[in-house]
Design goal:
The mean pLDDT is 96. The protein starts with a strand and ends in a 10-residue tail after the last strand. The protein has 2 domains: 126 residues, Roll (Diaminopimelate Epimerase, Chain A, domain 1), CATH 3.10.310.10; 124 residues, Diaminopimelate Epimerase, Chain A, domain 1, CATH 3.10.310. The chain contains 4 helices and 18 strands.
Length: 283
């Protein structure tokens, strides 16, 4: 029962290859929670289950959050999975496609896998696609109240939901304090990722992230994509944006129709064996 651990700017994932788990169709929610637990398991921000067969792409991928729920898409997870495919020789060239429940993306390997570019798809602000409750509309500059405070937000999807809140003063405490309540707010029937955003200049933004199903996160690729698109939609930044997070920076290029190309680093951490005794622990 092999595992392969990587991190992308401090956002760490464990890759489990189905070929190495012949008797397991996919990890259960309980198994995911145990493996990801930082005291009782290996510890990670999620599990990447793949490669899987795909009719639409070269490889298929499922993404599990540490609470056992499943994510549609993860920018950092996709970069990590791309690095794994390259390291294992499963990718026959530096460019290939990956299908997730949130859509098909194209990966490009650079610098021997240490730097990876992902064509993430296009951002939408349409309520029915995100989804956001209420009438069909673009969810731009609306208000939300949580924990006795009101914020103005813009919602977006790049295959998974995001609630982006521009602020003048940014801190990790904002994400930690208000992120949990916004994640499960009735406005978001599928829950949502939450980002607090500060614009530094026309080409630089800074964000703090509360990730759906994972909690406070040092970095997020899909959050970076959504925040750059929101800032551009609001007229606050140009098309080339560096997104700065506690774990490091990601480069975003915004194309026509809010198409997003993301470039960031990946680091290999460890390969090892999961002992069956691990699953004797309930979390």
């Amino acid at each position: 029962m092999r595992f392969h651990k990587y991190h992308a700017l401090g956002n760490d994932y464990i890759v489990l290859d189905p070929a190495e788990f012949a008797a397991m169709p996919a990890p259960s929610a309980e198994q995911v929670r145990v493996i990801c637990h930082r005291n009782f398991g290996i510890g990670s921000d999620g599990i990447l289950w793949g490669p899987l067969p795909s009719r639409k792409a070269d490889f298929g991928l499922r993404i599990f959050n540490p609470d056992g729920s499943e994510a549609e898409k993860s920018g950092n997870g996709l970069r990590i999975f791309s690095r794994y495919l390259w390291d294992q020789g499963k990718a026959k060239g530096p460019s290939f496609t990956i299908e997730t429940p949130g859509g098909v993306v194209k990966a490009e390997i650079k610098d021997s896998g240490r730097l990876i570019t992902i064509a993430m798809g296009s951002v939408s602000f349409e309520s029915r696609r995100i989804p956001v409750a209420g009438p069909d509309r673009e969810v731009v500059g609306e208000t939300i109240g949580v924990e006795g405070r009101t914020f103005r937000f813009t919602a977006a999807t790049i295959g998974n939901p995001h609630c982006v809140i521009p602020v003048d003063e940014l801190s990790a405490d904002l994400a930690r304090r208000y992120g949990p309540a916004i994640e499960v707010h009735p406005l978001f029937p599928n829950r949502t990722n939450v980002q607090f955003l500060k614009v530094l200049d026309r080409n630089n933004i800074q964000i703090e992230v509360w990730e759906r199903g994972a909690g406070y996160t040092l970095a997020s690729g899909s959050s970076s994509s959504a925040c750059a698109a929101v800032a551009h939609r609001l007229g606050l930044v140009d098309r080339s944006v560096t997104v700065r997070m506690p774990g490091g920076s990601i480069g975003i290029e915004i194309g026509d129709g809010f198409s997003i190309t993301m470039t960031g680093s990946v680091n290999r951490v460890a390969d090892g064996e999961l002992n069956p005794e691990l699953f004797g622990v309930s979390v």
